[in-house]
Specification:
It contains nine helices and 17 strands. Helix content is about 20%, strand content about 15%. The protein has two domains: about 80 residues, no CATH class; about 325 residues, no CATH class. The chain has about 450 residues and is of the alpha+beta class. GO terms for molecular function: RNA binding. This is APO protein 2, chloroplastic. It comes from Morella rubra.
Length: about 450
């Protein structure tokens, strides 16, 4: 440290431990510094004006809090700074937890908090006039979300088409005995297989060539002609078509597909009871005028017409477009799920798009005999609706393969993100925390044992 610097940090020692620093300054006291994203921000030579010149922090995604408090009356004339720098994304984060088939998924919001919020709403509604039910609960569409539904639909098609092209240049392996996949020239050596005859193979995977369905899980749901209609009974489970859940959500949000008709109301429904309603008379309404030109819908490219990128520049551009489509689909679906409810079974991956789940008794999860095959419906989160499929991150594609003894040093990322990164795309900030990019990987086991 340059003690001749005019910076106030130069007047005392600095102790740094795991991204947090405590600075003791002369006459000021302790200065706590917490950095998570860009440790280089603490380079003292970059801030010659001390804490007064913090313009370099404005370009980053960090938050700065500078309260000026001093309990000592003798130090009122001096400044006491408490600098807190917090990044939007953590430096390191734990991997997503693996839930066994015998465990039930946790509720997104605990039932105790839901009941407490319901009681508060009931108390506030006493003596107040009933408010009209907003869309989409009244049967109408949310007009502001219709363009977003088209964007999510096209983003999904773009993602599938680009992945088919990237699979021509990026190696993706899938285990033939379990649902694990790996992105890289060689399959990872970790003994994590839970499939058939895993004990005979001592947990090793049987790697084969992966497809798009292995990267993006085909989560399907029943297509509803009327999303406010009666629940699907068990007897009609085979007569109702099943389509991708993302497509069903987009249809309910306003996307018109001729092959999948759905009921569109121009008047809000008339409530008779809590779960009973009748449709309003729309005969008095004038004929609908000419519809505006809808956003064109993309179509999937057949496998026989898929062409690989021509060069590395084209591959990198395609990877960036794929990452953008992946982010647009997830962010758009998350916004749509706030108004158009999506249900998931707490015991199996079954998903239903609608206000209440279906009655089909096709749940085969743990102890389904006690529930007579019925699903335990609960509110779905984004990862239930669009599973990210985390895979091991390969630090160097051209380097040596992953080593079994150095497993704790490797990070993880969604399969789509890992494919795009190996194809030349820039690492997104939101996935850096689980990829462990700032962790130094030892070269051998002996060096790993020396790590404290």
């Amino acid at each position: 440290m340059d003690c001749a610097s005019p910076n106030i940090f130069s007047c005392g020692p600095v102790a740094v431990w795991r991204g947090k620093g405590i600075v003791r300054t002369h006459g000021v006291g302790l200065l706590k510094v917490s950095f998570q994203k860009i440790p280089e921000l603490l380079n003292l030579n970059r801030h010659p004006g001390g804490l007064g010149s913090l313009r370099s922090f404005q370009a980053s995604s960090s938050k700065i809090i500078l309260p000026k408090k001093s309990n000592n009356s003798a130090l009122k004339s001096r400044l006491s700074y408490a600098l807190v720098i917090r990044g939007d994304h953590g430096q390191n984060a734990d991997f997503p937890r693996y839930y066994s088939r015998k465990e039930k998924k946790p509720f997104p919001v605990p039932i105790v908090e839901l009941r407490r919020a319901a009681r508060e709403r009931f108390k506030k509604s006493k003596g107040q006039p009933k408010r009209p039910v907003p869309p989409p609960k009244n049967g109408l569409l949310v007009k502001s979300l219709v363009p977003l539904a088209y964007d999510v639909f096209n983003a999904r098609i773009t993602l599938i088409n680009n992945l088919k092209k990237l699979l021509k240049v990026v190696c993706v392996h899938a285990c033939s005995c379990c649902n694990e996949i790996h992105v890289g020239p060689f399959g990872h050596p970790f003994r994590s297989c839970r499939g058939q005859n895993a004990n005979i193979r001592k947990g090793l995977h049987a790697w084969t060539t992966a497809s798009v369905d292995d990267i993006i899980l085909p989560v399907e749901a029943y297509h509803l002609y009327d999303r406010l209609g009666k629940r699907i009974p068990h007897e009609k489970r085979f007569s109702i078509p099943r389509i991708p859940a993302v497509v069903e959500l987009c249809i309910q949000a306003g996307v018109n597909i001729p092959e999948l008709p759905t009921k569109r109301r121009r008047k809000q429904i008339i409530r008779i009871g809590r779960k009973e309603f009748v449709d309003a008379d729309e005969s008095e309404l004038p004929d609908p005028g000419p519809e505006l030109p809808e956003i064109p819908l993309l179509t999937e490219i057949p496998d026989s017409e898929v062409e690989a990128p021509s060069d590395e520049v084209d591959t990198a551009w395609l990877a960036e477009e794929t990452l953008q489509a992946w982010g647009n689909m997830r962010r758009g679906a998350k916004r749509l799920m706030k108004l158009y409810p999506v249900r998931v079974c707490g015991y199996c991956p079954e998903v239903h798009v609608g206000p209440s789940g279906h009655k089909a008794q096709n749940c085969g999860a743990h102890k389904h005999q006690q529930r007579n095959g019925q699903h335990g419906w609960q509110a779905a989160v984004l990862d239930d609706f669009i599973p990210p499929r985390f895979v091991w991150h390969v630090p160097d594609v051209n380097g040596p393969p992953l080593q079994r003894d150095l497993r704790n040093f490797y990070g993880q990322a969604p399969a789509v993100v890992e494919i795009c990164i190996q194809a030349g795309a820039v690492v997104p900030d939101e996935y850096k925390s689980t990829m462990r990019l700032d962790v130094g990987i030892p070269t051998n086991v002996r060096e790993a044992e020396m790590v404290i």
